[in-house]
Amino acid sequence: LTVSNEAPIGVFDSGMGGLTVMRALMARLPDESFVYLGDTARLPYGTKSGDTVTRYAVQAARALAKRRVKLIVIACNTASAVALPALEAALAPVPVIGVVEPGAAAALAATPNGPIAVLATEGTVRGGAYLRAIHARNPEVQVVQQACPLFVPLAEEGLIDHELARGAARHYLEPLLADVKPGCILLGCTHYPVLGPTIAAVVGRDIPLVDSAATTAEAVAALLVERGLARTSGAKPLPNVFLATDAVERMARVGEIFLGAAIPAQSVELVDLQEG
Ligand code: DGL
How many CB atoms lie within 10 A of CB 65? Predict the structure, then answer.
């Protein structure tokens, strides 16, 4: 099976949060086109078991592979944290990049000696993937983790600059900050960057917030070059396509908050991951 380097890049998330990663990919790789799939019918992944997340993520990635994408970015932290080996095996030879390694690199670039506070879903925290990825690079760094499950529905509702979001941020962060003063806060979940200003207001401007979007885009750019997969034709890239497993109208409407650009309603299609 050969994939053309003119083919689009697939981007997968459990919902709309991965559009924050797609935004960075579009900025870094303006000559590429993208197919985004949000498994909005089955979100959240972050509260589910590793087995369930793996099964869902493999189904979703196969749906992207059917669209003949040349590379798949697992923009979902939970799926990257618990399902990456299964995804690589299921999709070979299509290369797969997750967001955990780039996120760990971004955190260490911000604060080489830590401590690092990782905010993520329950599934990501439980699996310890960020802990391992950070310690593989520097075993001395202190890492504290905090699951922030309420952030996901708040972001999906677009309640980002809202008293409820500020209350949730205080609830999760004040106890953590009483124990440790982190050198940076790693937003280890696709949905958290849109809550960045609200989180920053609680932690204080002197502690930087980092996420994996920009470093993931760099990793994708490097892999495209390494594998000879970058587009070279110079022709205008195909329009981006958005796939959702539920509520396509909502993705067009709320997705804009995450992508930072309008999503035309006609570019969002409904897909069923369970059919054949
Ligand atoms: N996309 C998930 C992540 O980045 C957050 C939403 C969910 O729990 O499904 O971990």
Answer: 16
CB-ligand 1 contact for 111 (6 Å cutoff):
no
Tokens of 219: 């990793």
Q: Is the CB of 17 under 6 A from ligand 1?
A: yes
| C-alpha of residue 211 to centroid of ligand 1, in Å | 14
pLDDT bin (cut points 50, 70, 90) of residue 233 is: confident
Atom 6 of ligand 1, residue of closest alpha carbon: 44
pTM: 0.94
In this prediction, residues 26-36 reach a mean pLDDT of 97
How far apart CA 43 and CA 51 sit, in angstroms, is: 15
Q: How many CB atoms lie within 10 A of CB 197?
A: 11
Q: What is the pLDDT of residues 101-142, one digit of tens each?
A: 999 999 999 999 989 999 999 999 999 999 999 999 999 999
Distance CA 221, CA 2 (A): 20
Give catalytic residues, as residue numbers: 76, 189
- pLDDT > 70: percent of the chain: 99
Give the SS3 label for residue 263: coil
Mean pLDDT score, 190-218: 95
Question: CA 180 → CA 114, 116, 140, distances in Å?
Answer: 11, 9, 16
The Cβ of residue 270 has, within 10 Å, a number of other Cβ atoms equal to: 14
Dist CA 36 CA 213 (whole Å): 15
